Each structure stands twice: as structure tokens, then as C-alpha cells.
Amino acid sequence: MNHWLEFFVHWASSLGLNYGFLLDAYPRSTLAQGALTTLWLCLLTIIGSLLTGLGLAALLTSGKRALAVPARVFIEVTRNTPTLVQLYCAFLVLNMLLNQAVGTANPLTPFAWVVIVISLHKGAFHAEALRAGIEAVPAVTLEAARSLAFSNRQLLWNVQLPLALRFALPSLINNLIDLVKMTAVASAIAVGDITYSAIMIWTQSDNVLELMILLLGFYGLLSFIVNCVGRYLEARLRMPGYGH
Amino acid sequence: MPSIESVVEPLVSLRDVHLAFAGNPVLKGINLDVYPGQAVSIIGPSGSGKSTILRCITGLLQPQRGQIRVADTRVDALTREAQRIELRKRVGFVFQQYNLFPHLSVLQNLMIAPRKVLGRNRIDAEKDARALLAKVRMEHKADAYPGQLSGGQQQRVAIARALTMRPQLILFDEVTSALDPETVGEVLTVIRELTQEGMTCVLVTHEMRFAEEISDVVYFTENGVIVEHGSAEQIFEHPANERTREFLRHALGAPARRGPIVSDPYLLTNLSRYSLSV
């Protein structure tokens, strides 16, 4: 491991890039810890946002006004305001109120606030993608399932959701790629993700360019992995005779 | 067959059924009886409420007034989902647009309802499904997906799918209207065999010759009312009503032919006669 690192540092220096800080244990562990934090953020917000999206889409398509209207209001407010502002608002206002109310018993860390805000924010986008999928399932296909004596629950799980998911999948993957990049806002409230770690290192030494390249490469790789998983799922769920 | 009708209870009976969509009346007092083992055809112009009658019989639509009875079930009075499920287990439905589940293979399309709804095990359900596919001559496509099949093939699979529930009655809703003339035959053959085996069938159809051939009773509807009904021979050979006569004249017969225009050089069919050598 260290051998490869030294080889890389040597090779980069021939390009005029100074990655010498990677050989120091402290900045290296800071970066590794940041990368791990970003991975956790991605994993938790992907799960959280998909669950939020599913819940909101269920409310939107429930056909009950009392459920659909609040969901619609939430989605419009959420997707029409910047994530960063929402995060500040949640952490600086809501968290402060919570602190005043319960004091040190407040269980919500900055990390938790990021997971909550991004999950809700991206959940609103997922909900719209899922709604498009649900509404694209032809009414006659549902009629066919009903005429085969499916209960509403069986119809939802065996026909409506499998088809809706296939229709919504490209949009959902699009949202998830955006979500990976969005986790960088965590650095704004000093959650030690990879962006924050990089900032901490470059404020102490003159290696902004080298860290930028690392950062971009890291986020690019993560997004690419999400993209590959999405492509794999699309291929797995493809309905022969439809699409390409 | 009036002698049979007098002793056997009808399997399906509609009495004075009224239904309106958003104030727009579609059915205006439908009376209809289907006896066990009968093939009943409903014919009539588009928009006359034929498909709506079928949807009422299986509880997909609820009439505002009138009675619908299938065996001992009062369909018009069903309120709970469980009651509708019990009804639909006994009534098959085949749609104009096939409506197979596109994400499932042909075999899975046939197995899903018996397994999920009737709770049958995989081995039995698959054995049944394969037997029914053979019956509609689609056994070679068991692993294909609906999107890979022609319209006629999809419709035969849809008929087999309805049969997997072993229904007492099958409703066919213009099942050949979306097919080209050549594939209509393969679907009609399957339906003909079903009626010969004694399956009770109600068909909404525009295939007049087919309706005449296989039907025990034919109903002619127009504008939400039954204009006339009787045996196939009676309706097709000696229609009593003027509207029935007019409809059948258009549907069955000689479309007004234009005489050939032999001397018009601009008519494409005459082109060869006037073509110049270049």
C-alpha cells in the first residue's frame, strides 16, 4: 500500500503536482476519514430519500385530497428552495430551537441533519419521478389485473409498482447521481466529509490544485458507480419488446 | 332452445340496468340473459354500450340502477373488495388490447393469478399453464415476453390467462378488433373450440359471420338499449327491427361498389395502359 503511494507521489511530482502530504499520516487519515463519512452520507441519504420518495408518491397518487395536498405543498416548497439554505435553516434554526427545548439531550448531530435534509430534498424529486411511473401504468393493465381477481394490495405489488419502477428508473438514477454530488453541502455545517477534510488540509498548506483533483476524481468515481448500478438495474428489469 | 331456458336458471341476468358516465347515459335499461353453456353475442354500432355491459357483469363498473346477477351473486349490490374478488374468480375477461403484464413472461402471465389469488403451488400452476398454452397453440412461446409476440399471439395468451382461473363464464370484449384480418382467424378458432366444449361465453364482436356461426343467442344494441335479440338465425336471416336490418346490411354485406373507370388516364390502376416507353 505504502509502496504504491510512494510510487504515485513520485509519478505525480514528475507532472509538477505535489502529493507529498499523502505520505504524512495526519492529512492522509483526515482524507480517508472524510471519504468514509461521504460514503456513509451517500448510503444513508440514498436509502432515506428513496423511502421519502415512495411515501410522498403514495400520498400523491392516493386519490385522497387530504393526503395529496399536503404532500404536494411539501414537494413544491422543498424542490423550489436551495438545499444549502434548507440545511442552514435546519441546522441553525431548528437545531437551535431543539437545543433550547431539550438542551444537551438533543440527539441530532450535524451529520444527522445532513442526512435528514438531503433525504427530504431528494425525496421530493424521487416522488415526482415515481408519480410519473405510477401514472404511466395503463389503466387497462390494472383493469386486467382486477378482472383476474387481484386484491388492491396484490395489484399494487405485482403489477403497478413493478411497472412504475421500470418507468421511473432512469429519472431515479438521475436523482441519485445528483444526490451523491449534493452531499458536499455537509461541509457547510462542518460535517467532516471529504470536501470539509480537503478544505481543512488546504487551508494549512498550499496544495489546492492537488486536493481539487482528488475531490473531483472521488465524486466522479462515486457518481459513476451509481450510474453503473443504475444501468445494471435497467438491464435486469428490461421488458423484452419494449425500449432498447 | 326455449325448452331448456324454462327449466335452467340463467347464469347471468341483467334487469333494467342503467349506467351513466358523468351524467351521460350509456346504458338505458338493459335486459339480458345468459344460460349455462350458451354462447351469447352482443353486436351493434360503436358507442352503443356493448363493452360497458361486459364491464358491469364482472363488477368493473357499477350501474346506477337495475339488477345484475351472476349465478347467486348480486353484482350490482357488491360493496366489499372480497366480494368482487369472489365474483372475478368465476368470471374471465379478455380485452380488446390483450392487456398482458409486459414485465412477466408468457408462462408467468398464466401463473401469477392462480398462485397469488387461488394460492396454488408452483408445480401445479405451471403444469396447468403449459396445458392451456398447448390448447391455444402457444406452448412454444412459454418463455417469450408479451412485447415479443404478435397481436394474435398475445390475444391467445390472454385467453389462456383467463382460463387459468377455471372460470364458469368468459367475457370477450372485441377481442379481434385490434388484429389484422389474417390473425383474426387464429383467435376465433380458439374461441370456437371453447364454445364447442360448452364454456359459457359472452362476446362483444364486430365479426358478424363468426357471431352468426357460434352464437346461440344474439343481442343487437344501439344507444344503450337492446333493440332486438333472438337466435343467430333469427337475427341474421330475419331481423324484425329496421335498425337491425340496416346495421347488418352495412356490417355484412356488399359495400357500394364503384364501377371501374376505364378510360381515365390519371387513374393509377389504368396507368399501364397509357404508360409510355422511355
UniProtKB/TrEMBL annotation, chain A:
User: Does the record carry Transmembrane as a key word?
Assistant: yes
Domain ABC transmembrane type-1 span(s) in chain numbering? 35-226
Xref: InterPro entries: AA_ABC_transptr_permease_3TM, ArtM/GltK/GlnP/TcyL/YhdX-like, MetI-like, MetI-like_sf
Give the record's keywords alphabetically.
Amino-acid transport, Cell membrane, Membrane, Transmembrane, Transmembrane helix, Transport
Q: Indicate the family of this protein.
A: Belongs to the binding-protein-dependent transport system permease family. HisMQ subfamily.
Q: How does it sit in the membrane?
A: Multi-pass membrane protein
**UniProt key word Protein transport:** no
Subcellular localization: Cell inner membrane; Cell membrane
Q: Which Gene3D superfamilies match?
A: MetI-like
Membrane-crossing ranges are 7-26, 38-60, 184-202, 208-229
Q: By its UniProt entry, which NCBIfam families does this protein fall under?
A: HEQRo_perm_3TM
Name under which the protein is recorded: Amino acid ABC transporter permease
Instruction: Tell me the Pfam families matching this sequence.
Output: BPD_transp_1
Q: Which SUPFAM superfamilies match?
A: MetI-like
